Amino acid sequence: MLAQTHIKQQLDALRHSTVSGFVRLRVAVEVHSFLGWLAAQTLYPRIYWQARGPARPEYVALGRIHELTRPQDIQRVCDNTGVDSEDSPRYYGGLAFDPTQPGWPDFGPCRFVLPRIELVRRGECVSLCLNLWLPKRERATEFEAELLAAESALDLLQPEAPLPPLHKQDWQREDCPSHAQWQQLVAQVTAPEFQAHTPKVVLSRESRLGADDAQDDQTAISPWSLLAQWAQHAQECFHFGFQFSPQQSFISCSPERLYRREGRHLQTEALAGTIRRAGDDAIDQALAAELLADSKNRLENRLVHADILSRLAPLATRTSLTEPRILKLRLLQHLKCDIEADLKPGVCDWQLLDALHPTPAVGGAPRESALAFIREHEPYDRGWYAGACGMLSRETSEFSVAIRSALIQDGAIRLFAGAGIVAGSEPAAEWAELDNKIANVLSLLG
């Protein structure tokens, strides 16, 4: 590839320079499908990130220079992004829903990667980037080793290729918790004595899909093919995926932003309250009006935005909140309030993650008592489902809440969905909401 040759020329020029610290080399490149390019690569980790919104920047990250695997070490990420350079490093990764728990193998409670190689699309411009962290020039052996490691990674790059086809098949489905267990959990949360101290708990379900021939090369699911098709049906969402090893992948088309920080300006949101779409404009408008007027869903959203505002208060000089509006997705409609804030000087991403994650939209309110109930009673490990996934840098950081997500491993697909349980919640209606939330991806699988 000509792009690799041009970057290698820049790389060779570094041997005659005195530069040290973080360095990003880049060249323009032509790539049509980022996911097709990603699926063709052999370097791990393999990470994909596309933000929500009109500009929709798109990233692929490959390999690693450095990574962090403990939640408390995110402070070091914040420190490292403060280097005095035209380009600051971008870390891609996530926090589990409950970072105090061990989490999934490969993913753990926390994993952030500074990649060796990035593919970046902003508008019409696509760049191939090579990242280095160079020691001082007098440490000649280490300096040369870093250059050689970067060159080796470039040599492994493969040209873009078509994504493997996504074959529909028959799946055996098992829900955890079961329908009977779900009814019991909802009854516990809606009991008056429980509501007196914990007015909202977000209960969730894992739906495991298994197939006898899922290990067959002809029918095995490519996570990147699934994500590409899913994204076409979820244009209004964040699209992202993490594959730290060949054995398993986590992908998501999430409608929910945890936050976006540009300098000291913060955008976040309260996304809670759900109703279906019918595919008919008049019926959808009537359903949206019903959602806006529904006391149970308004309560659920109010608990979320009140908690977010209270958590931002010590970190911000100003906050603002919009009235609830309708966010229309392909099959669902949600209540959404937009929140903006101006952050106090010195506030960093670690403080924002600690304050905002997990939000009451995926955990409950008050946070600690809701999380205690989930830890004790939910019969599976959420892992990165409903976690905070995104990108950190000095200039801009953005995180999505990893709902509408799937874990692909061991010839099986695990789909996740949650529902906010408050006073007045009915088990059957909430169970149906869980089904509605996985219907989009299920329609692609079989």
From TrEMBL:
Residue numbers binding Mg(2+): E300, E433
Domain Chorismate-utilising enzyme C-terminal as annotated: residue spans: 179-437
Reaction catalysis annotation: chorismate = isochorismate
Keywords on record: Isomerase, Magnesium, Menaquinone biosynthesis, Metal-binding
UniProt cross-references to Pfam families, sorted A to Z: Chorismate_bind
E.C. numbers: 5.4.4.2
Enzyme class: isomerase
SUPFAM superfamilies per record: ADC synthase
Function: Catalyzes the conversion of chorismate to isochorismate.
Name by which UniProt lists this protein: Isochorismate synthase MenF
